[in-house]
Amino acid sequence: MWALLVAGSVFFPGLFLLSKNCLRHTPALRWSEGDAVIVSARLVSSIQAVMASSAGYIIATSCDDIVEDQHWLTSSYILFAVPYFVYDIYAMFMCYWYKLWVKGHEADVSPKALGTALSSYLRREFLMVLHHVVMVTVCFPVSVFWRQGKGDYFQGVMFLAELSTPSVCLGKILIQYKQQHTLLHKVNGGLMLVTFFIFRVLLFPYLYYAYSRYASIPLYMVPLSVPWQCNLGAALLMAPQLYWFCLICRGAFRLFTGSSRYRRPPPTPCADSDRKDPLPPPANGYSAPETKRETNSL
Question: Distance between CA atoms of 225 and 227, rounded to whole angstroms?
Fold first, then answer.
């Protein structure tokens, strides 16, 4: 148990630091600290999502009896992945902090400024931080100890929820670097909408449907047949997914109807000829700092 917790505690922060250093020091890239932090955090989240969904697929397809069958990978990956949620709270704050730098506050790094940024971060990302805290303090002990080895199939299916994460991370990167006008952003937006709906919104109704078939009872009888803790946990986990899905739908509507306030700026005359030392565009395609608060997007 402890070996897996330690391994996860080393792997995810280590992967973040490795990615950040590669982006900063690779001669062909030489990205800034802020750019490297933001992209590295999204990269680690995407890799964790691929690992979790792969583990979920292996577990779900290996369980014939969806209640009694067990797979060693279930508890093992839970133990390995728990440190990720602790690390990701820190990584999300670092991303938020460097976004403030981009907006012109790089000169103020006093403890008071850090405290203000942390307070603002917790207010803005309260639901996501709460989700991560619940995953560590509630879902972890429930999944490892309270289940008593039953329902590995359901746990594996829940791992598949992470299939939507890579498109969410790519969408955040494209928005951060003002690439909403690109075809990639539109394609990724459609993929994010579909995967989030299937693997996060429909996931919980599917779990109830799977149990109704297993127990040979009508679907509407399932909530009355399972422990009340299962119904409460499903409701608490599904509620933020519905909220985030509504935000995604709103963003998709703006994207595909052309009503988003973020459009590619028209070409304007530039005073590059008056510059004494014109600079080439950054390798990561970063555009000018934005002065408006960015749209909350998943």
Answer: 7
Residue-wise pLDDT tens digits, 208-231: 999 999 999 999 999 999 989 899
136-154 pLDDT, tens per residue? 999 898 888 888 888 999 9
pTM of the model: 0.81
Q: How far apart are CA 122 and CA 237, in angstroms?
A: 20
User: Rg (Cα) of the chain, in Å, rounded?
Assistant: 22
The answer to whether 254 and 189 have CB atoms below 8 angstroms apart is no
66: Cβ contacts below 8 Å, ≥ 6 apart: 151, 153, 154, 210, 211, 214
Task: Say which residues have a Cβ less than 8 Å from residue 284's Cβ, sequence separation at least 6.
Answer: 29, 31, 35, 39, 177
- Quickly count: other Cβ atoms within 10 Å of residue 181's Cβ: 13
- Contacts of range 227-232, beta carbons closer than 8 Å, 24 or more positions apart: 229/142, 229/146
Give the integer Cα–Cα distance in Å for 8 and 80: 5
Query: Where is 241: in which H helix or E strand?
Result: helix 228-257
